[in-house]
Design a protein that fits this description.
Blueprint: H1 8-17, H2 22-37, H3 53-69, H4 83-86, H5 88-92, H6 94-101, H7 107-113, H8 115-118, H9 124-135, H10 162-165, H11 197-220, E1 225-226, E2 229-230, H12 232-236, H13 238-257, H14 262-281, H15 297-325, H16 330-357, H17 360-363, H18 369-372, H19 378-386, H20 390-395, H21 403-408, H22 410-413
Antiparallel strand pairs: 1-2
Amino acid sequence: MKGRLVYRKTLLNDSIRHSSTLTVCAECLVKSYLPAYFPSRRRVFSTGRERWSTWGAAVAAVQNTISEVLPNRQAPGNVTIDPLRIVGKELKFLNKNIRQLLGSGHPILDTVAKYYTQSEGKHVRPLLVLLMSRAIATAPKRARRDNLIPDPHTIDTPMSPPKVLYDTNPDQPGDTPLTSPSHEIDYAFPDDGSILPSQRRLAEITELIHTASLLHDDVIDHSTIRRSEPSANILFGNKMAVLAGDFLLGRASVALARLRDPEVTELLATVIANLIEGEFMQLKNTALDEKEPRWSEENVSYYLQKTYLKSASLISKSCRAAALLAHSAPEIVDAAYAYGRNLGLAFQLVDDMLDYTSSGSELGKPAGADLELGLATAPLLFAWKERPELGRLIGRKFIEQGDIEKVLYPKRTS
């Protein structure tokens, strides 16, 4: 590993401190739950699977940063609670419920749309929604107008006539599942009063939006592997992958509307716009896209803004939406958003670091892909501060032969 750009402590601690809302989630929400769920850096999850390395490292980074903010709060010495077990029942049925939402009468579209649900993903985003929902179950509430309180029995009921919707889903029970408003969909929901049906559906919607973004990103980035399997664009072609991603967003939008909560709909709808804006920002490594840029704090701020739009927006807004669906008090809603924002940023920071320090087999996707795409992520930005000559490589996006080697192995190429 010598010679590579490894700036673990500087990267995580300095970058997370750039966020102005960290102390909110630490004081209001994490003080009761994060130390209990994640007692140590070494054993974040009892599963021990490599696929959790990014998630575990991100959580550990946030925990350590929070411990600096709240030095008097010590984690229990013998707590070994696994967050996967806390919401294990809900996660057990997650893929089944998502696949029921994705049914299509067109066999090819049905296959492509469900392709990424066949392999086991990390399910970080729905996991966070479910954990947040349970964490705030007994938190202070606020009164909401009756027309803003979703009825748990209507999350699958259409609001428009079926002949207008023209949207029969063969994976939902019955020959014509949408022809009767009273038809009950056979989704698997555990009988647990601490997590509402609308919050479970929110977790599924969050995963649908994320999976749609993966389908689109793989086309944009010309990816060949996803979750250790051939990516959808390689297996089915770019057109099919893009259309399947659009279909997932359509199904997510319908499910979101049936929650019948305008504020939640607004939140998740802006996530889709955020993803596109973040993708456009990623076309440039700096705001001005200079040919020979110089390092500045503005470049780090640009990267963090792009990272929020592409990664943290979905996590932060879905956490906030979970609090809204629980009718939580405004301070709880704000704390849920701040928690999701900071954890989302930390998650992506660690993922960017692993692109330099882990193998493709560990990541489930090619290592070093960011440099191949010409992207300057956090590790390189912090190295750039110490090595001004990297600015020229960043400006030309590593297109010349040997540029990537100069970044990864500076001692060999000096």
